[in-house]
Amino acid sequence: MMVSKGQIWLANLNPIKKNNEVVKVRPVLVFQNDELNKNEYPTTIIMPLTTQLIDDVQPIRIRINKRENLVHDSDIIITQIRAIDNARFIEYLASATEEELHTVKKLFLEIIE
After folding, report:
1. What pLDDT score does 76 carry?
2. CA geometry: angle 27, 43, 63, nearest 5 deg
3. In whole angstroms, how far apart are CA 46 and each of 11, 59, 96?
4. Are 90 and 12 in contact (CB under 8 A)?
5. What DSSP assignment string belongs to the chain?
């Protein structure tokens, strides 16, 4: 299964390892660059999405509107970035815009710097 940076996929994030980790089957944003994605690297860096919306919490989250097969407005949870095995991807849902990806990258850098 080939994923690309900026795509939103349904993925299985179970089993739970720690109480503060986001789990269950949910949409995730592919954040890994396409050089690794196209070379069939066995894991992919993602950020999970949630429909439990919280307003004005940047840089921790960014809101994206429903589109394509993403049926609810959702927050990308930037602080829950992680790598998952590629076998966890279930189906393609939608794509983030270039502007959204730029904002996600900017907010991610704010968190780590």
Report:
1. 98
2. 30
3. 10, 16, 13
4. yes
5. ----TTEEEEEE-PSP-STTS--SEEEEEE-S-HHHHHTT-SEEEEEEEESS--SS-TTTEEEE--BTTB-S-EEEEGGG-EEEEGGGEEEEEEE--HHHHHHHHHHHHHHH-
Nearest-angstrom CA–CA distance, 6 and 102: 10
The residue type of 64 is I
* Calpha distance 17→7 (Å, rounded): 25
**pLDDT band at 24, cuts 50/70/90?**
confident
What does the alpha-carbon distance between residue 19 and residue 81 come to, in Å, rounded to a whole number?
A: 15
> And the tokens for 26?
């949910």
- Residue-wise pLDDT tens digits, 52-105: 999 999 999 999 999 999 999 999 999 999 999 999 999 999 999 999 999 999
